[in-house]
């Protein structure tokens, strides 16, 4: 069953068509355009990755075992596990339900069919699909903060510049007519930036991004010069992603000159959407706010007038954060309250409202916000920040914080398969 | 005070530094053709830190910042506890201050089961070194026994900035102050305001903005740890003092530097003021020569005329002679009578006179070589570098003296841009 499922991908690969075309990015973007990349020197190097771990222990379950073993019965499981298929759709369904560890196990099972599983085979054959599985696997490892495993398993890939990562260098007849990179663009960004960034190696990430940016710009310019607008637009979006990643790195390194330079760079790109520009200035303002430059932050926030309800909401939140920076928690509270009226279910606004309550001396009101938000919509509101803030408030409230934190743990356990932050750190257990 | 007994109340204290802007969500880039991509996913990957996170540690604090804390007293027994009150003192090496708390509540009060008595306290720290927050809770047990307990929270107040000042006395009455401010905190800071608040005897002009009102530091007003930047101020005595040399000599206090900064911890604000800054003393000697009127720019091969004032700052009367002490190397020649009598000048009185030079060299020219002799005492006073003038070829060409660029250069480059 598994093998026949997989055979499909191989067949499709060799027939020179593309399984992933069913998820077309934009109409008119061919796989060649999508997979275009600047060829490295033919270095004859091969890539031999292997899965190092198949099953991941469940940190939430072990927290439950330690603190309230009776509750293990109510541990959240994937809603539709009977109908789960052992293929891409299965992985997608699991990710959608935040079951990241189960999705990870599935990636290793599928990869073993490529001889890249826990017991790696003799001959390793890469295909678009196997690399897509690897990308998904490293992606999920980062999601659940298993960074050491992610680092170890991704080592074999380097920066995806080995010869066997490009159609041009592969000897198989079937690929003769194909060109470009086997691994997807997002995989390049994941290995060059996201993983080192999470591993606290921002400088390295920044260096890698400079190369990625140069290549992306080259291709973007190539299509723009040919006046191929759809393709140019597609690559412009990618250039924006890379520039945003550089901003993230520079923010972490507190390199404000670089941040300003990249924002200026972004604004020079042609035909930017108004929505994006609005969010750009908004993010720029928040970076200034964080580092204490209130007047510049305010200027950035006011650069683009808000024209729709979505902007209105962001503008209110920005003003609220500005008031927090100015130590005016009453004003901040009013602004977050107004934002809350516009979007009652927004967990970020609820969280910020609760923080304002505390700074205004109203601890009980703050706790009430968290408790009702978690009770009303546990699926969406069990956000790591809300959990950590709520646990902090329980510790301030009384000597009975332990009991209340375990109550939170029970809700997490019953509603979320995986959290994007360590559960013990989240709840200060 | 007695740690032996189990108290009916629990005291909890949380230091309220600014909340942090975070987002713990691991937002990872994917495209629509990628396996883990969800349709609902955000379309841009700009930093999305907009969640406020409560402070997670007591931490240190810098001088000039405001110490804030949440104080919470919780009744953890099943019966009511009466006459509950809290007192917060901040103890430092040299002082002990009581921080106001519960200004809007009647204290003492009764707490029922699970009720709390809570409030936020604020205090601007004014001293460096170890501080201890002492919280004392007083209450009366149901049996009528007055009870109390204390909790201590120790923290360090650190020095945030290093300020160094240098004074330059100009030939005029102006004093130039150069203040170097170094960030010695562990984080990036933003200097929001650095101003010289002059004392009553002086007025101050900040030299840290360009002509269009922007800061000379452009957008780069953030100071990385250990980095420093310089601020310049021009300080002038107020007219009534400038005209009275004795008072001017006495007016040593120039003013205070007032510094407001914000940390990169979501703009936590701090403010420091230096003590009175003292100018270096002015020594005029017996005679003081000052320029009262002169152009800063002059044409070559045309007479350049300027007005001087000589003041007798000694205690005796003087009969003065003026002559040019031309040394061969200088190319700027005085014209007119090489020796003139300035007459008798009483102590603290002055006399004005006019001099002319004939510049024969382009560029900045320094005028000096002036000799004044006291006939009575047979004493000679020499003056060098009394005045600088910018000698140009043609006065009709406009110059921006601040930049030393010819103005007519600018329209040319603009023309190039528009073409």
Please report the number of helical segments of chain B: 3
Strand residues, percent of chain A:
under 5%
Q: Look at the structure and give the mean pLDDT of chain A.
A: 88
Runs of chain B in which pLDDT lies below 50 for 5 or more consecutive residues are: 405-419
- According to CATH, what is the class of the largest domain in chain B? Mainly Beta
What percentage of the residues of chain B does DSSP assign to strands (E)?
A: over 45%
Gap between N and C termini of chain A, in Å? 44 Å
Task: Tell me the greatest interface.
Answer: A-B, 83 and 62 residues
| Oligomeric state | heterodimer
Quote the CATH topology of the largest domain in chain B: Immunoglobulin-like
Distance between the termini of chain B: 84 Å
Structural class assignment of chain A: mainly alpha
Rg on CA atoms of chain A, Å = 24 Å
Please indicate the count of domains of chain B. 3
Uncertain parts of chain A: 1-25
GO cellular component, one term (chain B): TRAPPIII protein complex
Family (chain B): Belongs to the TRAPPC13 family.
Domain Trafficking protein particle complex subunit 13 middle (chain B): 161-280
Protein name (chain B): Trafficking protein particle complex subunit 13
């Amino acid at each position: 069953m598994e093998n026949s499922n997989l055979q499909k991908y191989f067949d499709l690969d060799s027939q020179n068509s593309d399984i992933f075309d069913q998820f077309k990015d934009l109409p008119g973007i061919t796989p060649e355009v999508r997979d275009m990349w600047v060829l490295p020197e033919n270095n004859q190097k091969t890539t031999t990755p292997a899965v190092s771990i198949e099953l991941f222990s469940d940190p939430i379950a072990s927290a439950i075992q330690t603190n309230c073993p009776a509750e293990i019965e109510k541990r959240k499981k994937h809603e539709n596990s009977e109908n789960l298929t052992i293929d891409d759709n299965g992985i997608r369904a699991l990710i959608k339900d935040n079951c990241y560890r189960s999705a990870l196990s599935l990636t290793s099972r599928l990869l073993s069919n490529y001889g890249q599983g826990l017991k790696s085979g003799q001959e390793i054959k890469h295909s678009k699909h196997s690399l897509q599985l690897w990308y998904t696997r490293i992606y999920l490892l980062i999601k659940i903060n298993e960074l050491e495993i992610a680092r170890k398993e991704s080592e074999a890939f380097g920066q995806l510049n080995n010869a066997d990562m490009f159609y041009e260098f592969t000897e198989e007849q079937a690929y003769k007519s194909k060109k470009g990179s086997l691994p997807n663009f997002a995989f390049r960004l994941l290995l060059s930036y996201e993983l080192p960034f999470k591993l606290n190696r921002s400088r390295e990430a920044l260096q890698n991004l400079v190369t990625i940016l140069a290549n992306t710009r080259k291709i973007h310019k190539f299509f723009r010069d040919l006046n191929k607008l759809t393709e140019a637009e597609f690559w412009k979006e990618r250039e924006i992603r890379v520039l945003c990643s550089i901003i993230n790195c520079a923010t972490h390194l507190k390199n404000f000159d670089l941040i300003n330079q990249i924002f200026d760079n972004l604004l020079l790109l042609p035909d930017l959407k108004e929505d994006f520009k609005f969010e750009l200035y908004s993010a720029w303002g928040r970076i200034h706010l964080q580092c204490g430059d209130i007047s510049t932050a305010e200027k950035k926030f006011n650069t683009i007038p808000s024209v729709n309800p979505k902007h209105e909401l962001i503008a209110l939140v920005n003003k609220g954060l500005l008031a927090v920076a100015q130590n005016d928690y009453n004003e901040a509270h009013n602004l977050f309250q107004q934002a809350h009226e516009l979007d009652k279910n927004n967990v970020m606004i609820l969280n910020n409202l609760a923080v304002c309550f505390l700074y205004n001396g109203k601890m009980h009101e703050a706790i009430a916000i968290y408790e009702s938000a978690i009770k009303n919509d546990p699926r969406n509101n069990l956000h790591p920040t809300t959990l950590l803030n709520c646990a902090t408030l329980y510790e301030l409230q009384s000597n009975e914080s332990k009991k209340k934190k375990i109550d939170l743990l029970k809700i997490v356990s019953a509603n979320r398969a995986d959290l994007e932050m360590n559960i013990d750190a989240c709840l200060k257990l | 005070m007695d740690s032996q007994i189990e108290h009916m109340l629990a005291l909890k204290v949380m230091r309220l530094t600014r909340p942090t802007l975070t987002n713990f969500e691991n937002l990872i880039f994917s495209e629509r053709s990628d396996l883990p991509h969800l349709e609902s996913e955000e379309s841009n990957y700009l930093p999305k830190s907009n969640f406020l996170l409560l402070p997670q540690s007591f931490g240190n604090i810098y001088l000039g910042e405001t110490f804030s804390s949440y104080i919470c007293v919780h009744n953890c027994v099943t019966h009511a506890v009466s006459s509950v009150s809290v007192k917060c003192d901040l103890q430092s090496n040299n002082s002990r201050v009581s921080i106001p708390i519960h200004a809007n509540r009647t204290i003492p009060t009764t707490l029922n089961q699970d009720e709390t008595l809570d409030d936020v306290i604020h205090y601007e720290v004014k001293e460096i070194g170890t501080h201890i927050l002492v919280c004392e809770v007083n209450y009366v047990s149901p049996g009528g026994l007055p009870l109390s307990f204390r909790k201590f929270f120790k923290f360090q107040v650190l020095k945030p900035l290093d300020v160094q000042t240098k004074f330059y006395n100009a030939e005029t009455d102006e004093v130039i102050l150069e203040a170097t401010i170094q960030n010695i905190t562990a984080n990036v800071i933003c200097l929001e305001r650095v101003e010289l608040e002059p004392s009553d005897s002086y007025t101050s002009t900040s030299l840290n903005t360009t002509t269009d009102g922007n800061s000379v530091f452009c957008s780069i007003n953030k100071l990385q740890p250990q980095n420093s930047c310089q601020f310049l101020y021009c300080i002038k005595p107020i007219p009534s003092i400038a005209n009275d040399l004795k008072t001017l000599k006495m007016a040593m206090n120039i003013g205070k530097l007032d510094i407001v900064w914000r940390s990169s911890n979501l703009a936590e604000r701090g403010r420091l003021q230096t003590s009175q800054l003292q100018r270096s003393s002015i020594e005029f000697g017996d005679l003081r020569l000052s320029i009262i009127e002169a152009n800063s720019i002059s044409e070559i091969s045309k007479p350049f005329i300027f007005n001087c004032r000589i003041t007798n700052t000694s205690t005796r009367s003087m009969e003065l002679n003026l002559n040019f002490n031309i040394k061969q190397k200088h190319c700027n020649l005085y014209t007119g009578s090489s020796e003139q009598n300035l007459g008798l000048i009483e102590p603290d009185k002055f006399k004005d006179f006019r001099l002319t030079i004939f510049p024969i060299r382009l560029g900045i020219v320094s005028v000096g070589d002036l000799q004044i002799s006291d006939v009575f005492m047979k004493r000679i006073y020499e003056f060098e570098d009394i005045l600088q003038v910018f000698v140009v070829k043609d006065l009709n060409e406009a110059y921006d003296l601040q930049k030393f660029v010819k103005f007519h250069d600018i329209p040319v480059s603009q023309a190039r841009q528009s073409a």
